[in-house]
Amino acid sequence: MKQKPKYFYRIFLPFVLVGTLVMILFNGFAYFFTKDSFEEKITLEKQENVVQTMNTLEQKLQALDYTFNSYVHDTPFKSYISQPLTAKNFDTYQTIDKQLNYISSFGPSQTTVDLVSLKGNWKISKHGLQQLTETQKEQITSKYLSLPHSSTWLKADDSNSEIQLVKQTPFYQTNKNGVLIINIPLKSLTNLIYKQSESSPIFIYSQDGTLLYQSNSSEEKAINEKTIASLINGNHNQTGVLNVDTNGENKYKVAYSKSGYNGWIYLSKIKDSEFSQAMKPTIIGTILMSIFMLTVTVIIAYVSSEYFSKPIRDLQKFIPKIQKNGYKDEFELIGKSIREVLDKNQSLEHVVTNQHEQLKTLFMLNLFHGRMSETEIQEELRDFDYPDKWSYLYVLAIQFDSLENSDYTRKDKDVLLFSINQIVSEIIREDEQLTPTVIDSKTQATIFICENKDCDHHVLIINQYAEKIQRTVKEIFNLSISIGVSSPFEKLTESKQALAQGIESLKFRLKVGKESIIFYESVSTIFNNNQIKTYFPKILENQLFDAIKLGESKKAKESLHQLLADLFKNNTNPHELEVNIMRFLNDLISLMQVMGMDTLIIEDHKTLYNAISEMKTSEEIEMFVKNKIVYPMIDAISERTDSQNKSISEKIIHIIQNEYDTEISLEIIASRLHYNKNYLSSIFKKEFKQSFSEYLALYRYDMAKIWLKETNMSVREISEKLQYKNSQNFIRYFRKIEGTTPGKYRDLHRDESFSV
């Protein structure tokens, strides 16, 4: 036989190994699952056998027990159990004997009954009527009447061949004078045992752990004592299976069932040899199946290796023409050659794909800039495999609403636009779009294709796509975008005008706000109106400027919001709105110059007008005017006003402290300082939260308390010195503030002044 090449064995051996491994795993799992199934089946059969045996025996024993219970409670039994019985009373004896024989027939075969009357001094058994001797009476009393219960199952001490049911009479009385002894031969129980117990011996134990019965094999060892004790004293179920630890000997399990009638425990051993014997046919079958499967695997592996190695033999005929030295085997040579071919092919595909996408983008840019004729467009559509039939076309122009207060800067704008470009290409179906394109640093545009002629249907579909694009951009970048939609057109040569319409419609964001979807057709009538209105809320502007001059920040904010809201409401055309906003900015700058404030500095060195013109929404413009112009002006004016007011207030306080004992008033101070009286009053109240007269009166009150404590001036002199025309007025004012008269105040504080 011709020797096979290396690659044959590299194919053949894995086939054999995999097949062998699968066979081993399959047969192994099958064996273990079958083993568990057999064990479970045998265990279940043992349990059922034990339960069946217990039920069969208990049925006989309970029938016998209940029949004798009825018998000992009968009135005739109670009458003759306490009476003497001799040969003269043969009729009575015969009646009792028949009754006992009849009742014993309810039990297992060969069941006999002994009836003993200690009071009547007689015993009836299978041997007939006997009179009791004193010795017999003592034995019966010690053996049977000493039992703790009136009805007791026990195994005869003098025999291993029978069990006894002992009933003391009278049944429900403390003083017992009779015994009913039911003798059941153990061999009679064998006939009642379930047939399967012939191969699985049954063990019966009493409540105290005594072995009552063992079926079939007398050579079989009894159950482990620890196991019996565990079943008697432990917390086990009524039926179940228990593992038996035999201290190094062969371990086994026992299936058990506890009797609810007399507390006996029925058991049967489950040996490992039974499992092995049951599994023997399965093991033989598994081995034979493994041999067969291994043979089949080898045959299949050989045939398959021959089949799969044929292409390698064919490749070998070609590859050596290129190179064959320096490689350890044919696979390495073939793999190296194929990888080189694939790498070159992939590189070529990558170059072609990139150029293809770049050419598509160039085609779209030429379309949007109006640089292509109808003939050129048709050729490009065929080359790029674009749809060439449609009912209408739309241009979707997308712009960011604002990058302010976001995690991005203006430098990120180009990257963000290209990301949106990719999102649009993925969301809009391929047959409903031409390649999405970034037009410039502000706008991304897409030509949307509609095959349906129903324009209302177009609006619905475009709205759905636009909303999905907005949601996706919001979820990914947390940025808001607006989308302008052109009027429908039919020829791609109109793409330039359609793009202009989409961008123009986005100017309407000044009216509708951010995250807008604006169709040019819905606003075209407003754009086409060439009349510019001259509406401007001059009254509101004057109110705003007055609030700024007075430094009233809250009022200025309200006036600004009201003015801008009025501007946006009454200027329906974005061009009108832009003109009037510029007018408002001019007025603001003029006010700044009048108030001697510096010119505003805008980031990126833009002019104020350029910054406003780039804003897309009314909210953005309002926030810019508030934060960059109005609020700084208010802060500057408030700072100036506060400084000036503080200086004036300090002058008034100085005059009060030096001239409080003269006839001074706010009119006199206003004349002296050359200010309006009302102006000084408002400044003083704003600074000290109280009026000039209240401050003066309280200062004079404090001086009065000092004079009362430290001088001997009379109350009248003090009131005159403090410019009170009537001393009673001074006393009433003092009592109102202090709660006591000036005289009493002086008396209360005289000791204090002396101590000082």
From TrEMBL:
UniProt feature coiled coil, ranges: none
Superkingdom to which the source organism belongs: Bacteria
Gene3D superfamilies: Homeodomain-like, PAS domain
Residues passing through the membrane, by range: 12-33, 283-303
Pfam families: HTH_18
InterPro entries to which the protein is assigned, alphabetical: Homeodomain-like_sf, HTH_AraC
Keyword Transcription among UniProt keywords: yes
Domain HTH araC/xylS-type: from-to ranges: 650-748
The entry's keywords: DNA-binding, Membrane, Transcription, Transcription regulation, Transmembrane, Transmembrane helix
Protein name: AraC family transcriptional regulator
